[in-house]
Amino acid sequence: MQTSAGRQDRHEYPAHWEADVVLRDGGTARIRPITVDDADRLVSFYEQVSDESKYYRFFAPYPRLSAKDVHRFTHHDFVDRVGLAATIGGEFIATVRYDRIGADGLPASAPADEAEVAFLVQDAHQGRGVASALLEHVAAVARERGIRRFAAEVLPANTKMIKVFTDAGYTQKRSFEDGVVRLEFDLEPTDRSLAVQRAREQRAEARSVRRLLAPGSVAVIGVGRAPGGVGRSVLDNIRDGGYGGRLHAVNRAFPEDLKEVDGVPAHRSVREIDGPVDLAVIAVPADHVPAVVAECGEHGVQGLVVLSAGYAESGPEGRERQRALVRHARAYGMRLIGPNAFGIINTAPGVRLNASLAPEMPRPGRIGLFAQSGAIGIALLSRLHRRGGGVTGVTGVSTFVSAGNRADVSGNDVLQYWYDDPETDVALMYLESIGNPRKFTRLARRTAAAKPLVVVQGVGSAPQGHAVRATRLPHATVSALLRQAGVLRVDTITELVDTGLLLARQPLPAGPRVAILGNSESLGALAYDRCLAEGLRPARPVDLTTRATAEDFHRALSAALADDTVDSVVVTAIPAIGEGSPGDAELAEALRSAAAAVPGKPVLVVHVELGGLAQALSAAASTAPAAADKAPGTAGDAHRFEPGDPHRPADLPTAGAGAGAVPPPPGVAPTVRASGSEPHAMADAVGREPAVRGDAPVPPPDGTRLIPAYPAAERAVRALAEAVKYGQWRREAADPGKVPEYDDIDEKGAARLIGELLARGEGLTIPAAETCELLGKYGIRVRQALPAPTPDAAAEAARALGYPVALKATAPHLRHRADLGGVRLDLADEEQLRRAYAELTELFGTPADLRPVVQGMAPRGVDTVVRAVIDPAAGAVLSFGLAGAASQLLGDMAHRLVPVTDREATSLVRSIRTAPLLFGWRGSTPVDTPALEELLLRVSRLVDDHPEVVAVTLEPVVVAPHGVSVLGATVRLAPPPARDDLGPRTMPAY
User: Fold this and answer.
1) What does residue 594 show for φ and ψ, rounded to 5 degrees?
2) Cα dist. 564→127, 322, 507, 513, 561 in Å?
3) Rounded CA gap, 624 and 496, in Å?
4) Cβ-based neighbour number of residue 856 at 10 Å
5) How far is CA 121 from CA 377, 684, 729, in A?
6) Residue-wise over 635-649: b if at least 16 C-beta within 10 A, else e?
7) Which whole-number Å values give the CA distances from 959 to 410, 712, 783, 784, 853, in the listed order?
8) How far is CA 931 from its chain centroid?
9) Which pLDDT value is given to residue 582?
10) Cβ atoms within 10 A of the Cβ of 552, count?
11) CA distance to 811, 937, 968, per residue, from 786 (Å)
12) CB contact at 8 A, 685 and 609
């Protein structure tokens, strides 16, 4: 056998094994192979390990490593002997190694497929999940090198290490001999091991975000001595927002004798701060950021928010600067929001952190916000500020993250945090792009099962600087997959806020049945028409007339909510003139009390205002709150300050903005309106007094049912339609179905055939005969088509198949184009066949140009198309639609991620707009959709079982009243793309 030194150069350094991981406590570490250059690091690491941990590793006192030990533990061939280290700041905190062994337990080479594995973790880092992360990575390395099983010997007292192995979820055996516990486990991922891995991923990533959003101490780096500037503005915003932790101002240009900036301790460097710093907000020029990051890392800072610009958004040089920034931060175990970020906000009472450029803390509430762009973040905060009022109170924000270039922390990380955040009930996200659709879809599905997730999806590219695979799927397909995962995908920020407010305030509707009532017949009719357009089932509107009183509204709403045939209610209200007309406060109370009596059904208000008339009514009819009830300078004062008025106080809440109002964020024009001129004027009439600067906004009482109000019927109905879809998805998600087993599937035979075909080349579209053979192993029968290069060959093929037959041109420009005349059907005899052959050649050219084939006639039915494709970013996708113009011209295709369950196959067939053609539209005969669903499930199984099948197209698939006929099929094979979702946990690479 070769010595280890002789095998040292068998493989080059495997750089693809390097990875950054998030640990259990939210910190990060880098995992990489151990090399000959690590001798000093290994010795230093070992010296910091306790004697007890050394005893557990070597089963005897082992105070120091000999030179031979150091050589053995740093020299690897990266095949039979592999060592990995977890590092922080370039220093080892843990190691793992495996040695391949044979059946006799002695060192061996392939084909031996078992290895001994052993760990050592520094005591200071035990309990952080380092060993679990290393086990995932060394198992992946071992599988890559042909090792299928690990063995480990552990002392019974080493319960922590035993738990690492037993909790991993692999299939294992356990024995006890000679005072040692021996564990053996297969390395093939199991459902349980994947579940354990993803649960650990969720906890770790959620904690890493929590450390950023709820720090015990914050340092703002780049604070100017004079007011103004980004750093000073953020410092003021944190202080004025009521942050309760320790706050520090840092600027290396501060004079040595400067002790405070506006009451905040001042320091020239993070190193000068006495005590830990959990979060550093960096607002210095990009050229100075590396030095600041190094200081933060050396001081033990846990996380960074980088507001500085000049990174990937500025071009290739900036992209390289951004990559270096992320590598630098991760080297110290720090997570990073930004660069080019707008900042973060947490309104929780025990935190109250406004580490952003928004000058005021938003109202506290139950809505989480994520945006990549600072401009979009401003718009979201502003719209929620203006729209926060409802009929019975206000809705605010729990947390807000504007991630800028999202070089590290992304929407996926924030989703992990929101999933089990008790302060967040609804998640709103504006995503310019989705860098990892496969992971986002998985996380979104889990989150949506617990709380609503509403997304505006842009059409941007992947994050600049990230080493992620770009999806090749069309934007519409990605949108459909998000909806399958329970995501409410809307088109605009307005719809995002409209839908989020409804879901934050109201229960989910049990179905699509809508009652409409109000004091405007035309507005009710408009709401009715929009309900029909959105696929809802509205009842005829109830017109209460313009003379309706608050009691009339209360009575009508109570009756609608008590009706078992009603799932939700839309109330329309316009201002009424005349004695006895209800004021805002009176109407709000009437609706609130009626809705409170039946809390299980959602209620929405369409509250249309008339501008100047509403203002006049407020003054003449005294519908506005008395001036004495208003804070100084608000709408009830005798004098109103217009925007831009030089005499207007800088810290004055915007007039008429609603209860608990604060000035809008920077870049958003303040508005001045009379009480009643905002769609949520009813909230002003019954809400609390506006908060003054420095006071915490008052959230609605726990359990208060807030009724959202909308300025237009179409906006209210669109939000309700999204809530109906989400409620239906939640009910279906409770029973997602199953992936059926079919006894006639020959999975092993298909694998052998695929292996033989791939041996011919890297990637190929396989010939027709092999296509039929491969599909046949999954119970998919393709109707035989015989080549017809001459009229005589066509006649012979028809005799073999039996009449009637079809004659088809299969040239690429004519294939599947019956509209061009390249297909002749129902040819009953040889005379008709030869005549059709002559017509085709006369119209389109020689047989060599046409590539004609003869095929037996299939039963009449509906022509459909079934496709499956492996996308490198999103995974395997199954698509279905009607063949021809419906799918090609109109894009009427439905999509599902593979593997598809029986319930998903049923839903897939019914999801296309042209689905009625399958179910007896206009008196036609319904076709055999159960047989179609089975075909979809078999195709799903094929691509799921064999990732080498990268594309399948069945076209046309004729669905008859009884059975389906596959008339054409193509299959493409290629080496399967890497599945990063099945490998060990890693952060995006740089």
Assistant:
1) -70, -45
2) 54, 58, 16, 10, 8
3) 30
4) 19
5) 42, 59, 45
6) bbeeebbeeeeeebe
7) 44, 44, 13, 17, 21
8) 33
9) 66
10) 16
11) 14, 28, 12
12) no
824 closest CA partner among 486, 838, 320: 838
Q: Do the Cβ atoms of 882 and 862 come closer than 8 Å?
A: yes
Say what the pLDDT of residue 474 is: 74
Query: Which residue matches tokens 């309760």?
Result: 244
User: What is the DSSP secondary-structure string of 181-242?
Assistant: EEEEEE-S--HHHHHHHHHHHHHHHHHHHHHHHS-SEEEEES--SSS-SHHHHHHHHHHHTT
CA–CA separation, 738 and 364 (whole Å):
41
Q: Is 497 helix (H, G, I), strand (E, B) or coil?
A: helix
Specify whether the CB–CB gap between 659 and 688 falls below 8 A: yes
**pLDDT tens digits for range 245-279:** 999 999 999 998 899 998 999 999 999 999 999 99
Cα four-point dihedral sign 669, 675, 679, 681: positive
Give bridge partners of residue 875 from the DSSP assignment.
871
In angstroms, the CA 940 to CA 896 distance is 10
Are 151 and 101 in contact, with CB atoms under 8 Å apart?
Answer: yes
Phi, psi (rounded to 5 degrees) for 709: -120, 145
* pLDDT value at 803 more than 60: yes
Pick the closest to residue 339 from 308, 381, 300 (CA basis): 308
pLDDT in tens, 152-181: 999 999 988 888 888 888 878 888 888 899
Sheet hosting strand 353-356, strand order edge to edge: 353-356, 343-346, 397-402, 364-371, 426-431, 453-457, 488-490
| Longest Cα–Cα distance in the chain | 107
CA 643 to chain centre: 40
pLDDT of 32 strictly over 90: yes
Distance spanning both ends of the chain, measured CA to CA: 39
* Element housing 135 (H / E): helix 130-144
CA-nearest of 437, 448, 441 to 486 is 448
Tokens standing for 118? 């052993």
Helix (H, G, I), strand (E, B) or coil at 807: strand
Beta-carbon contacts of residue 918 (< 8 Å; ≥ 6 apart):
862, 909, 926, 927, 929, 932, 959
Only one residue has tokens 């491969």, namely 774
- Residue 265 phi/psi, 5-degree rounding, is -55, 135
Q: C-alpha dihedral over 502, 503, 508, 513, to 10 degrees? A: 30
pLDDT at 460: 56
Tokens standing for residue 285: 């020029």
Task: Name residue 551's amino acid.
Answer: E
Cα–Cα dist 656/624, whole Å: 11
Give yes or no for a contact between 880 and 936, defined as CB atoms under 8 angstroms apart. yes
Alpha carbon of 364 to those of 354, 373, 386, 627, 706: distances in Å?
Answer: 12, 22, 14, 26, 14
Whether the CB-CB separation of 738 and 902 falls below 8 Å is answered with yes
Contact in structure between 735 and 906 (CB atoms under 8 Å): no
Residue with tokens 């690590």: 38
Mind listing the pLDDT tens digit for each residue in 618-664?
333 333 333 333 333 333 333 332 333 333 333 322 323 333 333 33
Q: Which residues contact 594 (CB under 8 A, 6 or more apart)?
A: 553, 554, 557, 558, 561
For 207, other C-beta atoms within 10 Å of its C-beta total 18
- Across the chain, what does the average pLDDT equal? 84
**CA proximity to 359, closest of 667, 650, 665:** 665
Model confidence band, residue 690 (pLDDT cutoffs 50, 70, 90): very low
Q: Residue 283 contacts by C-beta under 8 Å, 6 or more apart in sequence?
A: 220, 221, 222, 223, 229, 230, 231, 234, 307, 308
Question: Peptide bond preceding 899: is omega within 30 degrees of 0, i.e. cis?
Answer: yes
